[in-house]
Every structure is written in structure tokens, then in C-alpha cells.
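<amino_acid_chain>
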Amino acid sequence: MKAAIVGAGAVGAACLFAMAMRGSADEIVLVNRNRAKARGVVTDLQYGVALGPRVAIRDGTYGDLHGAHVVVITAGLNEKEGGATSRDDPAGRLRLLAANASVYRDIVPRIVEAAPEAVLLVVTDPPDALADFARALAPRSRVLSSGTFLDSLRLRFHIGARLGIDARSVEALVVGEHGTSQVYAWSGARIGGAPVVPSLLPRGQDGESFKREIEETVRFANISIIEGTGASQLGIGIATARIVEAMTGDEGIVIPIGSYQRKYGVTLSLPSRLGRDGVSEVLLPDLDEAELAALDASAQALRRAREAITPGAG
């Protein structure tokens, strides 16, 4: 099955690398405004592809998107370029929305013209608000955002690290926005069926401080990475590859991923069944009252951001 990536920057290259190494699709096409850059990324990677699953990778133009089952969109300003790297800024990634909406206004119609049947997977920050923007530009397309899948992996990692337990054994979700208003579903966090808080905390550990410290680390993980490397790319590359292979393999896995939620009027993340055609079912986890209120607030933040721009605005 064919997949494509639009955008050959740090995140696009990381997505291509992870998708090729995991065998997320049979064929992957990389498209970039500057085709020479896409060609360079593909040329560099193609020499190592023989050591992974059988997959064909190539650079191309928008016309080469034809036949792609899923198109991953990573094009646009990143957080460092767009000045979204302050822990004190409540807007967070949403600060990039206007600039990246301008990019999407150009590329989304070209993607849909070439691959009208493809599922669009928005990875560019802020992915949830941009997914809504893409839906307005391409109302007949199926549009998802990478959402809080990576945030949930980060949460599982840090819970496991604090408790000395492999992250793969941790069940924990982040829902809502992939951004500063994201919601940590502590009420459902489990390890081996036991609640993380308070049952599994070390003796003398205060539950609220445990949660607060981990939330702070997860919420600003991207900024910590950018401070060290200049771009947050590797984790989202692997997470994106996993999303793509769930679709190309029609797996029906349940992960937190962004799709349009009619109840909230925006794209945000909830646990969702993901397969060939995108999200087929959305599950509302058993959140407590505070978490439900936080989810409402997250949706409100996304609605305000969307209302600040329209597809026809200059």
C-alpha cells in the first residue's frame, strides 16, 4: 500500500525514516516545495533501506501522490522557527496556527487534487487546529491529526521511569489538544490493573506532586528537546509511522488520535479505533469530573484558535 509525506524538513525526514524502517507502507513518496531537498533525504536513506523491511521510497511532485492511501502532512514552520518555545506562553503550539494555515491554504488543495481518496494525517503543529483548517479546505476528505498519541507515550514513559516499570506495561492516556491544554487522564492510569495513583506510588510520595511533576515534564517535553537539539522530531516520526501502519494494515487498534468530535465541535484526541479508512469508532474514557471539565476547556481553546482564522482569510 502506498503512503506519502508532504514536507521534507526535520519531522518529515524523521517520519520517512521511521516509516521505512518499520515497513509502514509498501511505497512511500516524499514531496517538498524544494524537490532537491526531498531527493537528498531519499537518496541518503535509500542506502540503508535494504537492512529493513521491503519498501520502495522515492521523491516526487504533487502528481506522484496519486494512489496514496494516506498522506502525512508535515510542512510548515516548526516551534523554534515560529517562536513557540516559551513555557510561560499559554498559547503554546497554537502560536504557529496563522503561519501554518497559510502554508496549508496552498498545499491541501494540491494534495486533494492529486489524491482525492487519501486520508490526510496532519502532523504539522498545531495539528488539531490545522486538521480543522484542512477539513474546511477539503470538506470531502477524511482528516486526522497525530493528536495526543505521542503525548500519551511520553506520559507512559515518565510514569514507568518514576516507578521503575517498563513503559509498555503502563496504561495511561493524554486526551484533548496536542498542546498546553492537554488533559492527563490519571483516573484511568493503570499498571497491571492497579491504579497508578495512589496504589503504586513509593512510600511517602504525595500523589498530587507526583502528577504535577510528570505533567510538567510531558507538557513541555517538546521545548526541552528543542533546547537540546533544535527540533523535536524523532519521537513524532516513530509515532506517525505507527499510525500509518495501523491504517495500511487495517489493524483496528485503539489509540488516542485526533479526529473531528461533533460533541466538542473541533478536532481533538480521544481513544479511537484506527484502521484502513481512518477512525471508525471513538471511545470516551471514564474520566472524573475534573478531567471532563479540563477536556471541555481544551476544546474551548481549540475553538477560539479556529475562530481566529478562516480558510478564505488572507
In short: The CA atoms of residues 204 and 309 lie 49 Å apart.
